[in-house]
Amino acid sequence: MQELDFLLKMLPEIGVATVCGGVVGIEREMKNKVAGIRTHVLICVGVTIFTLVGISFGGTADPTRVIGQIITGIGFLGGGVIFKEHDKVTGVTSAAFIWFIASIGVLCGLGYLISAGLLTVGFLIITLLLSNFERFVVRKTKMYQQKKEEEK
Question: What's CA 59's distance to the chain center, in Å?
């Protein structure tokens, strides 16, 4: 019965982690990136569960040690999506998204559900704005390079 109580207590955190991971994963899926919906949901929920289990020990246990190990594991996952193709490195942004969604999972596990939701929405807005700004910079850079070529 104690285990069932623990499971029921975890449901709000797991629910918010699922939504946050799903929303971020949809953004990545729409851009056809290697880490999509399932990956982001699994990472966010998994990190939430590890955090909840870590803090459930109470007393003598140090939840920051659990969080430290989570960060190490997420670094391993993030490194797995970074590839070098010829002279170009790809996947760094996907790794950063994985790192971010893990931090949201920690927030969920610690019970900061509103913060997790608001930070996820804010992150997506900033990502959208930066994506548009990046396209603008690339376009201006190409125009500048073409102008330089024409002057030669």
Answer: 30
Gap between the Cα atoms of 123 and 45, Å rounded: 18
Question: Could you tell me which residues come within 8 angstroms of residue 50 by beta carbon, excluding any fewer than 6 positions away?
Answer: 66, 69, 70, 109
CA distance 127 to 129: 5
115: pLDDT confidence band, cut at 50, 70 and 90? Answer: very high
Residue 84 has pLDDT above 90, yes or no: no
Query: Tokens representing 93?
Result: 């942004």
**CA 60 to chain CA centroid, nearest Å:** 30
Measured at the CA of 91, the angle between CA 51 and CA 41, to 5 degrees, comes to 35
pLDDT of amino acid 97? 95
